[in-house]
Design brief:
- By secondary structure, the chain is of the alpha/beta class.
- The chain folds into two domains: about 1-135, Response regulator (Rossmann fold, 3-Layer(aba) Sandwich); about 145-210, Winged helix-like DNA-binding domain superfamily/Winged helix DNA-binding domain (Arc Repressor Mutant, subunit A, Orthogonal Bundle).
- It is about 55% helix and about 10% strand.
- It has helices at about 10-20, 35-45, 65-75, 90-95, 110-120, 130-140, 150, 155-165, 170-180, 180-195, 200-210; strands at about 1-5, 25-35, 50-55, 80-85, 100-105.
- It has a five-stranded parallel β-sheet, sandwiched between helices.
- Strand 1, helix 1 and strand 2 (about 25-35) form a beta-alpha-beta unit.
- The longest helix has 14 residues, at about 110-120.
């Protein structure tokens, strides 16, 4: 079962989303929070959720600050931003802070459920729109022909693992393709996170795009 927390200052939205998700026996709504401060307090009392569905515009502590604090205190918690705001700089900043996914509030309930499943399985979820925003933003920031192995001192195997991560393969799928164990893949993933100074798999993908490990 996946434990979920919902942080949003609109009670009707929280209750509606909670009702929809709790109708699926794979999900348990651990708690709801009306702002980032309330979220952090409830994590301290009720325990860590697996996934937080995080609004951005909230009083007292907004979703950006809450994302930064949650990731600093509980880095293993997955955060999916669920908002009406789609400004390019905000999306890139949140992904840089460690958010695992970004959805607009006009998404269907099926897409929200799919995003939850994907961040639990692959650590990140990007819609086509968010991917296009990332590519557009990164193209503005970087020069072509950056050589990642020189910049980050990646081994040949780490480059192979990173390329497959960017192709959205899971640890098990990478292990099969490279004929190595799941544990070895996870070891390479941790090394990549450290070398590229990324907070999660989403961060690895962004760094790989900036370094031209993958074409965009």
């Amino acid at each position: 079962m996946i434990n979920i927390a919902i942080a949003d200052d609109h009670q009707l939205f929280r209750e509606g989303l909670s009702f929809i998700l709790s109708s699926n026996n794979k999900y348990k709504i651990l708690f709801e929070a009306e702002n980032g401060q309330d979220l952090l307090q409830k994590i301290g009392v009720m325990g860590q959720p697996d996934v937080i569905l995080m609004d951005l515009k909230m009083p007292i502590m907004d979703g950006i600050e809450a994302t930064e604090k949650v990731k600093a205190l509980y880095p293993e918690v997955k955060i999916i931003v669920l908002t009406m705001h789609h400004e390019e700089n905000v999306i890139l900043h949140l992904l840089d802070l460690g958010a695992n996914g970004y959805l607009l509030k006009n998404s269907s309930s099926q897409e929200v459920a799919g995003a939850i499943e994907q961040v639990m399985k692959k650590d990140y979820y990007f819609t086509e729109y968010i991917t296009s925003v990332m590519i557009k933003g990164i193209r503005k920031q970087v020069k072509p022909a950056t050589i990642p192995s020189d910049d980050f001192q990646l081994t040949k195997r780490e480059m192979e693992v990173l390329t497959l991560i960017c192709s959205e393969l899971t640890n098990s799928e990478i292990a099969v393709q490279l004929h190595i164990s799941d544990r070895t893949v996870e070891s390479h993933r941790k090394s990549l996170l450290e070398k590229l100074n990324a907070k999660n798999t989403a961060g690895l993908v962004i760094k790989a795009m900036k370094a031209n490990v993958i074409e965009f």
